[in-house]
UniProtKB/TrEMBL annotation:
Protein name: Elongation factor 1-alpha
Keyword Phosphoprotein recorded: yes
GO MF term list: GTP binding; GTPase activity; translation elongation factor activity
SUPFAM superfamilies assigned to the protein according to its UniProt record, in alphabetical order: P-loop containing nucleoside triphosphate hydrolases (SSF52540), Translation proteins (SSF50447)
InterPro entries: EFTu-like_2, GTP-eEF1A_C, P-loop_NTPase, T_Tr_GTP-bd_dom, TRAFAC_GTPase_members, Transl_B-barrel_sf
Keyword Protein biosynthesis: yes
PANTHER family for the chain: TRANSLATION FACTOR
Subcellular location: Cytoplasm
Entry similarity comment: Belongs to the TRAFAC class translation factor GTPase superfamily. Classic translation factor GTPase family. EF-Tu/EF-1A subfamily.
Chief site of localization: cytoplasm
Species for this entry: Papilio hyppason
GO cellular component: cytoplasm
Length: 323
C-alpha cells in the first residue's frame, strides 16, 4: 500500500507514489461542503483522479468516506449524488465508471470496510463489469480483492525509475524503486540514465529479504558498488547496460491535453513536467499541431497557441536531459 499524500503542497510525493501503483483508491469525503470542495475546479479529488489516470493507473476504486457525517447520517441520496458526479468526471478523464466500484464507508466507525454495515441497509453492494469478467461485493476489502493483477513484462529490457537513494551503514548506497519492465538480479551491470553511471548490483532486497531476481511490480532496494549517494537521484532510471540501456533525451515529442490552464500556451512556455518519479522544467519548443483529443487526427498545423480543452503534438525540451 502506498499512502500518497492528499494535500496539494505534497503533489510531487503524491505523483512519485502514484506512478508505482497498479490500482488507486480515491477517497472522497461525503460531508456537507467537503465533497464540493474536493470536486471543485481546483479541488484535490479532481487532480488526484486525473494524475492517477495520466500516470497509467488504469484500475480505480472510489471510497465515499465519512458517511457518518452526512445530513442525515448514512444518507443514500447523498451517496447517489456523489456517485453520479464522480462518475461523470472520471468518465471525462478516461475511466469507465462501469468498471469502478463505489463503496460508501466510514473509516472512523469501520462501516463497510471489512464487513457490511448495518447502518446502510439501502446499500445492496457494488458491482463492476470489465472485459475480464464481472465482480461484486459489499465492502471495501472485497473491492481491493477484486483488483486484476496487471501483465508483468519480464521479457522487455530492464527499466527501474528511482524513487529514492539511501546510504545504509555497513552496506553502502541503496537505490529504491519499482521494476517497471525486465528483471533485476544480483550481478547485473546496471546503468543509471541520464547520468550514464555504470555499476554492478551486489544484492537485491524486498521487504528486508534477499531476492534472486526482481520482476515488474516489485518495489525493491538494491545495493550498488562504488557509487556514492550524491551521484544518484530520484527520477534517474536504471537499466541493464548490456540490453538496450535507457538513455537521456535532450528533447522529445509528446501528445499533451490542456485540461485546465489560465490563458494561452505558446512556444517558449516552461512548466514543470512530472515523468514517472522525475520532476523537471520542460520548454514547449514547438507546438507542431493541434489534434482531436479522441481520435488523435490533426486539426491544425503549427498553431500559434493552445488553450484549455485542446490536445496537441509538441516538441518538449527538458532543462537537463530526462530519461
Amino acid at each position: 500500500i502506498i499512502d500518497a499524500p492528499g494535500h496539494r503542497d505534497f503533489i510531487k510525493n503524491m505523483i512519485t507514489g502514484t506512478s508505482q501503483a497498479d490500482c488507486a483508491v480515491l477517497i472522497v469525503a461525503a460531508g456537507t461542503g467537503e465533497f464540493e470542495a474536493g470536486i471543485s475546479k481546483n479541488g484535490q479529488t479532481r487532480e488526484h483522479a486525473l494524475l492517477a489516470f495520466t500516470l497509467g493507473v488504469k484500475q480505480l476504486i472510489v471510497g465515499v468516506n465519512k458517511m457518518d457525517s452526512t445530513e442525515p447520517p448514512y444518507s443514500e441520496p447523498r451517496f447517489e449524488e456523489i456517485k453520479k458526479e464522480v462518475s461523470s468526471y472520471i468518465k471525462k478523464i478516461g475511466y469507465n465508471p462501469a468498471a469502478v466500484a463505489f463503496v460508501p464507508i466510514s473509516g472512523w466507525h469501520g462501516d463497510n470496510m471489512l464487513e457490511p454495515s448495518t447502518k446502510m441497509p439501502w446499500f445492496k453492494g457494488w458491482n463492476v463489469e470489465r472485459k475480464e469478467g464481472k465482480a461484486e461485493g459489499k465492502c471495501l476489502i472485497e473491492a481491493l480483492d477484486a483488483i486484476l493483477p496487471p501483465a508483468r513484462p519480464t521479457d522487455k529490457p530492464l527499466r527501474l525509475p528511482l524513487q529514492d537513494v539511501y546510504k545504509i551503514g555497513g552496506i553502502g548506497t541503496v537505490p529504491v524503486g519499482r521494476v517497471e519492465t525486465g528483471v533485476l538480479k544480483p550481478g547485473t551491470i546496471v546503468v543509471f540514465a541520464p547520468a550514464n553511471i555504470t555499476t554492478e548490483v551486489k544484492s537485491v532486497e524486498m521487504h528486508h529479504e534477499a531476492l534472486q531476481e526482481a520482476v515488474p511490480g516489485d518495489n525493491v532496494g538494491f545495493n550498488v558498488k562504488n557509487v556514492s549517494v550524491k551521484e544518484l537521484r530520484r527520477g534517474y532510471v536504471a537499466g541493464d547496460s548490456k540490453n538496450n540501456p535507457p538513455r537521456g533525451a535532450a528533447d522529445f515529442i509528446a501528445q499533451v491535453i490542456v485540461l485546465n490552464h489560465p490563458g494561452q500556451i505558446s512556444n517558449g512556455y516552461t512548466p514543470v513536467l512530472d515523468c514517472h518519479t522525475a520532476h523537471i522544467a520542460c520548454k514547449f519548443a514547438e507546438i507542431k499541431e493541434k489534434v482531436d483529443r479522441r481520435t488523435g487526427k490533426s486539426t491544425e498545423d503549427n498553431p500559434k497557441s493552445i488553450k484549455s480543452g485542446d490536445a496537441a503534438i509538441v516538441n518538449l525540451v527538458p532543462s537537463k536531459p530526462l530519461c
